[in-house]
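Enoyl-CoA hydratase/carnithine racemase (Rhodobacter viridis), 261 aa
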Amino acid sequence: MERVSLHWVEGVAVVTLNRPDKMNAVDFTMIDAVIAAAERLAAEPGLRAVVLTGAGRAFCAGLDVANFAALAVGDPEALIAPRSHGDANRFQQFSLCWRALPVPVIAALHGVAFGAGLQLAAGADIRIAAPGTRLAVMEMKWGLIPDMGGMVTLPELLCADVLRRMTYTAEELPAEEALRLGLVTELAEDPLARAMALAQAIAGRSPSAIRAAKRLVTAAYTAPAAEVLAMESREQIDLIGKPDQMAVIAANMARRAPTFG
């Protein structure tokens, strides 16, 4: 079975972790499949938004326990140390590839999002969870630390003391608590339906403005203030009066949905 499935709904790519018999536990094959899906989507000019979800009863239960044995008997340094994707290794790229994608990514969470699954979700722009979903930085349960990009993305979502507590204890949080803490964006009885509705709303906006907005928001969390301010100006200059903006203005004046080239 393919570890990841991909289908399209009017400019929205739905990427599904497809190992339901294992609660979408992450093995090396799935890591490579997720990265390949993101790389394929990055080259799609018609892409407007992405929804990440999991088949079956969970979003993702974390790293497949069988992989721990492979790591323990092999050479961890040979697997982990090489920087295969810019600043990141293969495992980190599993989650960071979604941050690098030029369009918004929405994760629809249900069941559990543990360990690698939580780090994958943290790489998305928005997280929508079903009530009762359980989330955890689970690595300490196995005597490990989170190393799949989570220490880049999670500090943007959580206060330092909360992230420390979750990392040190491997405690599980219900989605309701995760919402209060900022780890989850919103709750929905049907998170996939809500994620699709939100993605389709985004897909109806100016594609160039949406991509500019993602670049700008990403920089806002990582770059010095002077760079962010200059970037605001550059991005705006590149939008004003261009075809996408003119299509929005014409549509607003005519009180209809815009049509983009």
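The domain at 206-254 is CATH 1.10.12 (Lyase 2-enoyl-coa Hydratase; Chain  A, domain 2). Residues 28-42 form the longest helix (15 residues). ok done for today
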